[in-house]
Amino acid sequence: MPLTSINPATGVPLQVYADHSEAAVEQALRLAVTVSTNNRAPALHAVARLLRERRDEFARLMANEMGKPVSQGGAEADKCAFVCDYYADHAATFLAPQWVTTEATRSYVMFQPLGTILAVMPWNFPFWQVFRCAAPALMAGNSVVLKHASNVPGCALAIDQLFREAGWPAGAFQTLLISAARAEALIAHPLIQAVTVTGSTAAGQAIAAKAGACLKKSVLELGGSDPYLGRELGDFGIREFVNIKTVVVK
């Protein structure tokens, strides 16, 4: 079913986007598992640079598709650039093996990528919610497929193109224009290793149930109005998207 981008201030349709066919989705997932690059940090710095250079363009896109004031959209682009630079600079430290003392000769904790991550993201921060997931996930060695909110397909495709322009391999980050029902069904696909969602409690319940049934990891940020306690970024984002294993050498 096609997706129509509508300016919320005027009600005027902006553009109609054809959704991805089942064959196109399958091709995207197969492309995602082929990604291998040792130059992730420079490539993510390149994304940050493009975000800053084109902040006004992206701010206008956000304003047109979901009504965010242009000034806030520019600040959102800046924040996305910051998180890209942050994980590009610190991921190697976060992912370094951690030596531990045991009865064995040598023991250490190692961090391995999960594989392809399905990211289901909301409309309210159409760039930031994507990058807060994509930056640590990519630096941890994963690939990302994005199912964005149905009212911001232009933002979703712009982010996809941004990664390509920055030099990332075609399968590293991909946008899928599909329905919520198709995204939920995609969790069971053997090439999807984990899913992360920001959305309503009901959406989180449905996706967590599906992920649990498939024995796949899930990271959920759900709606609510609870008090918020902040914390430093640290390696929090990285740890969401790796397998943590303790290796013991006798």
Could you walk me through the main structural features you see in this protein, from its secondary elements to its overall organization?
- The protein starts with a strand and ends with a strand.
- Helix 4 (70-95) packs parallel to helix 5 (128-139).
- The mean pLDDT is 91.
- Strands 7-6-5-8-9 form a five-stranded parallel beta sheet, sandwiched between helices. It has a three-stranded antiparallel beta sheet with strand order 3-4-10, with no helix packed on it.
- The protein has one domain: Aldehyde Dehydrogenase, Chain A, domain 1 (3-Layer(aba) Sandwich), CATH 3.40.605.10.
- The protein is built from nine helices and ten strands.
- By secondary structure, the chain is of the alpha/beta class.
Please give a handful of descriptors for the protein shown.
250 residues; three-stranded antiparallel β-sheet; five-stranded parallel β-sheet; alpha/beta; 9 helices; Aldehyde Dehydrogenase, Chain A, domain 1
How does the overall form come out from the CA principal axes? Answer: globular
- The CATH class, by name, is Alpha Beta
Question: What helical percentage do the residues reach?
Answer: 40-55%
Summing up helix and strand content along with how strands pair, one would put the structural category as alpha/beta
Number of E-state strands: 10
Order of helices and strands: EEHHHHEEEHEHEHEHEHE
How would you name the CATH homologous superfamily?
A: Aldehyde Dehydrogenase, Chain A, domain 1
* Neighbour order of strands in the largest sheet: 7-6-5-8-9
Kindly estimate the percentage of residues that lie in beta strands according to DSSP.
Answer: 15-25%
**In total, how many domains does the architecture comprise?**
1
Mean pLDDT across all amino acids = 91
Largest sheet: 5 strands, parallel
The rounded distance between the terminal residues' Cα atoms is 57 Å
Radius of gyration, Cα only, in angstroms? 19 Å
